[in-house]
Design goal:
Structural class: alpha+beta
Helix content: 40-55%
Strand order of the largest sheet: 2-1-4-3-5
Mean pLDDT: 88
Length: about 200
């Protein structure tokens, strides 16, 4: 069957397409090709700790296509996004999962086959205005629903708790930024008014 033209597809649509068509049979492990490059991400957890993970195989090819079609802005699709990553080794196909924020994207000639250091396929980038964050009007219902999908209850509860913490931190961060801006503007106005008054007094 002829493959569709994916050049005008969004990154998420490409990722879903490659996830659907990937073979269900186990592939034989190929020797590492030193000329092949892989996408890795540096993530930050809610407690401030950092981690480096190779992107899931389902995301490698779609991101590569996205980078070719959008060379100047391809990183924007992932930077700041929340992505699920394992924080423990897998046991019977299950691991402890936490969402973390993507803060950097790396392209390295390094590949890992250890699933402990490979992200899951779920990621989402919250898009809300500063006004909504400031007035605490963001509930992250869509993000919680997407990132908890298909996980066992323990991981679902953990992901929900971390996203609640993320929301609280984001509200606090936005409010601090707004108050700093207001303070800066206020001080600037006082200095300008003071300079004007001083200039008028000197003229008189």
């Amino acid at each position: 069957m002829r493959e569709p033209d994916t050049r005008n597809w969004s990154f998420s649509k490409r990722a879903l397409y490659h996830q659907k068509i990937k073979p269900k049979v186990k592939r034989r492990k190929k020797p590492h090709d030193s000329n092949q490059w892989y996408y890795w991400v540096q993530v930050q957890f809610m407690d401030g700790k950092m981690g480096n993970y190779q992107l899931a195989r389902d995301l490698q090819q779609p991101l590569d296509q996205h980078r070719r079609h959008h060379p100047g802005e391809w990183r924007d699709i992932l930077l700041g996004a929340l992505i699920n990553v394992p924080v423990s080794h897998y046991h019977e196909g299950k691991a402890k999962i936490k969402p973390a924020m993507v803060i950097r994207i790396l392209i390295l000639p390094v590949r890992t086959s250890n699933p402990r250091w490979i992200t899951r396929s779920q990621f989402i980038k919250p898009h809300y205005s500063q006004v909504k964050w400031f007035f605490n009007k963001v509930q992250l219902s869509r993000e919680i629903s997407f990132l908890t999908h298909d996980f066992q209850p323990q991981n679902q509860q953990r992901i929900k708790a971390i996203l609640t913490q993320y929301r609280q931190q984001k509200v606090k961060q936005v409010r601090q930024q707004v108050w700093r801006h207001i303070l800066f503007v206020g001080i600037s106005l006082v200095l300008i008014v003071g300079a004007i008054i001083l200039a008028v007094e000197l003229i008189i």
